[in-house]
Amino acid sequence: MASRTVRRTPGGTSAMEARAAERRGRGRGRGSRGGGRSRDPGGTAGGFGGHAAAAGARASGRGTPKHGAEVRISGHGREVVAAEYIPEGDPVAVLVLAPGSGGGLGPGLTIHPQPWENRKRMSAHGGHYMRLGMELATGQEVAWDYRPTDRAIGSSSWAPVATLHFDYTLCPAGRLRKVSVLESAIEDMLACVEWIQARFPSAALILGGFSFGGPVAWATARRLPRGSIAGVASLAGSARAGPRFEAGELDTASGVEWHEGASLFVHGSHDANVALQVAEYLYEKASEPRSLLVVHGSTHMFESAGNATRDAVYAPLRDWVLAVATRPPPQEEDSCSRADGGGGDSFTLLSFGVRIISDGARRRPVQQRLGAKVDRMKEREEVAATPSAGGRDGGSEQQQEGETVAVARKGKQRAGQPEAWRQKVSQRRLREYCSHSEVRHELAGLVGYSE
Question: In what order do the strands lie in the sheet with 290-296?
């Protein structure tokens, strides 16, 4: 058998091995440009990592990291991990965001809950908090996988806003009714507020919270000087009340009433974790300017119809933050209102009352469906009110009138279709609350409310 001659390179490897290594190197090169699945040291896919971030920084002319710069904030006897998105120059406002009980990544995630360590992974796409931080700092729109686009933010009143979203030092999952867990989360948020305000003392302060972060944001506002907060946004926020929380001024309603700035409540109509009634109750407690955005069809995480639901929630939220950030002082705002006969576009974004929008799923808008049902109800009323022929006049007037009233009542219920969105009271939870309290709260027994 003829022997095979193997030529060696000066380094001691065969020519075949050298060519194979060269091919592997070219494959890694393609992966680093976004075509492969190689990963960087931070655990990010090649098409999702540093190269795209650098491209976004060049396109926008700003140096904000793609996923924010991770910082560790010491204060109030703890060390809080957070991600900051800082624009070039001094920001006009700072936004501090509190997460829900399932981790520090906030709403919008397809896969949830996820820990803070997954912040840079592909599974963390769709997060409202991370997209807010990137867009408010750069003024450039990004996609839900955080890739930069060539579009600028459509709002004409854009101004640089610094964003800081943090993770809790004490995981609240499974212990949401404990006063100590809420107090720990408030201390985390206060440490972040003090830290970011020390860096930008002249910037307006905006707080935001998702789910469990809602009570955290309102209780934090209660501990800060009155009038020092420009706005608070509650995304599917829950509520706390009762003697245990009221003793430490931790009840959510008192924080809402204490706050004098703008308030925004965003809630999904089909939220099974926090009842829609919670947002409606807190909205009634808030002072002007206040807004309640009900996303028809959306669930707790605002991702029921994918990116369509995320877009329905995100655009009003971002525009509201920018409106709060650029809102003039009260004296100047009053003079502007008198000059133009109203509050202008900025005030409309801050106080649009109660608005119902679709989650973007393939269904007719809620206004069209309700309008169609109201039309059918009116037709039934007209038919019921028309005297029928055939000699049934005797003794039938009261019966016909009663049928008309019955149809009208039924029609009224059909016209009030949003009532069907509301969560039903849990009798078990209601008995539990009433067993240790003589006064029944109007939210007692509903999910998302704790005493």
Answer: 69-75, 78-85, 161-166, 93-98, 204-210, 231-235, 262-268, 290-296, 353-358
DSSP state letter for 386: S
pTM of the model: 0.71
In contact, 83 and 99? CB cutoff 8 Å: no
> What angle do the packed helices 128-138 and 50-60 form, to 10 degrees?
40
The class (CATH top level) of 46-358 is: alpha beta
Inter-residue long-range contacts of 444-447, CB under 8 Å, 24+ positions, other chains counted: 446/275, 446/277, 446/278, 447/272, 447/273, 447/274, 447/275, 447/423
Domain boundaries, the chain: 46-358, 366-415
Measured CA to CA in angstroms, residue 427 lies from 31, 208, 242, 275, 349 at distances of 56, 32, 18, 15, 39
CA distance to 34, 52, 63, 140, per residue, from 151 (Å):
21, 16, 17, 6
Could you tell me whether strands 290-296 and 262-268 are parallel, antiparallel, or unpaired per DSSP bridges? parallel
Which ranges of the chain have pLDDT less than 70?
1-66, 154-157, 329-348, 360-423, 426-439
- 251: nearest Cα among 275, 284, 218, 273: 218
Q: What is the pLDDT of residues 2-20, one digit of tens each?
A: 444 444 444 444 555 555 5
**pLDDT given at position 167:** 93
CA distance 69 to 192: 14
Residues 6+ away with beta carbon under 8 Å from 13? 21
